[in-house]
Specification:
Layout: E1 2-4, E2 11-13, E3 17-19, E4 27-31, H1 32-43, H2 46-56
Antiparallel strand pairs: 1-2, 3-4
Bound molecules: zinc ion.
Length: 61
Amino acid sequence: MRKKCSKCRKTKDSSNFSRNASNADGHDHYCKNCNRRRMYAYFRTKKGKAAMRRASTKRKK
Ligand SMILES: [Zn+2]
């Protein structure tokens, strides 16, 4: 199955899209490439950095 990425607008095989059960076709709107770039951009923001810090910091008593 071929699917068009709504981010880069390229038509790719569905294997290039991560699974997303909440979508009608069972795949993400963005291809894996765009998803990775989106995550990377997110982790460069203040909010993303805070989230990453929270995730990597183990809770201490
Ligand atoms: Zn894409």
